[in-house]
Amino acid sequence: MGQVYIVCGKTDLRKGIDGLAVLIKEQFELDPFSGKVFLFCGRSKDRFKALYWDGQGFWLLYKRFENGKMNWPRNQNEVQALSSEQVDWLMKGFSISPKIKNTKAREFY
């Protein structure tokens, strides 16, 4: 499989292969036939769709998490390339860009 891209923000998951391919081509000016994997998330963030062209046809995968939700980026109208590590984080419900809080060291007496 090719590079994985996340379509940030909410996508209407009622769309099928054709609707998602048009979204990739027209809204983001990317090629849905490129062999890249495109991930889409709906409002509830407990399910997503993946669109992939294998050279002969499209794969449309749908996953629903039974417990928990994904930490999906909210930036509407943006697509981001993900590393394999970021894909793993996303599938486990973690953020694709974790932030570390700055905490002051506590003095112990």
Automatic annotation (TrEMBL):
It holds the Pfam family TnpB_IS66. It comes from the Bacteria. This is Transposase. The lineage of its organism: Bacteria, Bacillati, Bacillota, Bacilli, Lactobacillales.
